[in-house]
Amino acid sequence: MGLNDTPVGERKSIGFFGCRNVGKSSIVNKVTGQDLSVVSNIEGTTTDPVKKSMEILPLGPVIIIDTPGIDDEGMLGEKRVEKTKKILRNCDIAILVTSAERDLNDIEYKLIDTFNERKVPYIIVKNKVDLIERKSEISNENYIIYASALKNIGIEELKNAIGNIIKEESNQKNYLSDLIKPKDLVVLVTPIDSGAPKGRMIMPQQLAIRDIIDANGIAVVTKETELEETLKKLKITPALVVTDSQVFEKVDKIVSKEIPLTSFSILMARYKGFLKTALKGVKQLDNLNENSIVLISEGCTHHRQCDDIGTVKLPKWIKQYTGIEINFEWSSGMGFPEDLKKYDLVIHCGGCMLNENEMKFRMNKANEQNIPFTNYGTAIAYMKGILERSITPLKY
Q1: Rounded to whole angstroms, how far apart are CA atoms 383 and 318?
Q2: Which of 25, 83, 119, 212 has its CA 20 to 30 A from that of 368?
Q3: In the listed set 112, 142, 170, which residue is the last one of a domain according to the structure?
Q4: Distance from the first to the final alpha carbon of the chain
């Protein structure tokens, strides 16, 4: 998988925010080296968020988002501002572009407060520095960058500041490399069903293989139908077996108890920062009744298959486990509802196509409203009686 094929959920999302006519889109174009956004002297030229997945040196694979002016006016303006605020919830880094000709205004200070509340690292870019007469007082400190899109001043400093934040965050995340040692062998059980994309593997499987290689481990990939034969042919005992949740029960019976076993989905919950919440929330399955409403939510949008896990398999397993005709509702993509009060439980996918900020936003929305929140893999392991085994190998 090349850098340009890096999944959306693994790209850092960098959002550019600010009032109208501060040169925000001009800064975006300079950072990307492309005419990503339309630029003019007319206020409010950017009317909707503009997104682009791209490669920027030295930042690597990122998603750049240019947003409408946060001070947009009128009914349409209010809707644009709401879209802008929604974009912020899945930003890894926020860039506040303002004018070097003036101090920050009240709207910009409120935006900074929002950055802090949501714990989004941010950089202030004071654009139009070429219009300031007393240039000797200009400095780049504490991620306050003085820049000029027109004169190409401060753009490299801005890229370096973004790169420093990305590096700091990347150093803190492990998918499974912290669970193994060099030369350890890890078996990955990857069913190939009707929903599997042709010619490629789903993102958690790709991520696992790359993480094992980076840790100088050995990855063995097999289908559940060949797992038993695969284990017989191995000369050494696997340090870990990771399986797709859909075949968790079958794999649990094949893999001997002394071999650590977990699932891609449970690893993803840990990776995205909501495993503890998922483990607590899954117990709500025992409290459901015929009046309960369960929201099953997926982070991606795709064509539903006849054996789709979210709409077919998971509801069937829940009904079998509870013995009750539960009421189900579904959401997909960015259609996750912020008002969750009518639900008794939220069961989310692993979130591989969503970044950590978006997953934590969804988790926090549930926590704020006291709605139990878990994910597919945790729920399946719990209902099959193998959750304790699946979390034993993990550090969380």
Answers
A1: 8
A2: 83
A3: 170
A4: 29
DSSP per-residue string spanning 338-386: S--TT-SEEEE---TTS-HHHHHHHHHHHHHTT--EEEHHHHHHHHTT-
**Same-domain pairing of 252 and 358:** no
- 31 closest CA partner among 139, 170, 103, 127: 127
CA distances to 15, 106, 288 from 124, rounded to whole Å, are 12, 15, 48
pLDDT in tens, the chain (396 residues): 444 456 566 788 899 999 988 999 899 999 988 776 544 444 444 456 788 888 877 677 888 999 888 887 666 666 766 777 778 887 889 999 999 999 999 989 988 988 888 888 999 999 999 888 655 455 566 689 999 999 999 999 998 889 888 877 665 578 999 999 999 999 999 987 655 556 667 888 999 999 999 999 999 999 999 999 999 999 999 999 999 999 999 999 999 999 999 999 999 999 998 999 999 999 999 999 999 999 999 987 654 554 588 899 999 999 999 999 999 999 998 889 999 999 999 999 988 888 888 898 899 999 999 999 999 999 999 999 999 999 999 977
Query: What is the domain-level CATH number for residue 318?
Result: 3.40.50.11410
Outline where the chain has alpha helix (H): 24-32, 74-88, 106-117, 155-170, 203-214, 227-233, 248-254, 264-272, 275-281, 314-322, 356-368, 376-383, 387-391
Residues belonging to the chain: 396
> Nearest CA to 376 among 283, 298, 277, 271?
298
| Host domain of residue 285 | 276-383
| Same domain as 348, residue 307 | yes
Structure token digits, residue 200: 């490629």
Q: How many CB atoms lie within 10 A of CB 188?
A: 22
Gap between the Cα atoms of 375 and 377, Å rounded:
6
The answer on 124 and 9 residing in a single domain is: yes
Q: List Cβ neighbours of 306 (8 Å cut-off, separation of 6 or more).
A: 194, 312
Place of tokens 């539960």: 326
Kind of pairing, strands 60-66 and 50-56? antiparallel
Q: What residues pair up with 294 in beta bridges, in sequence order?
A: 328, 345
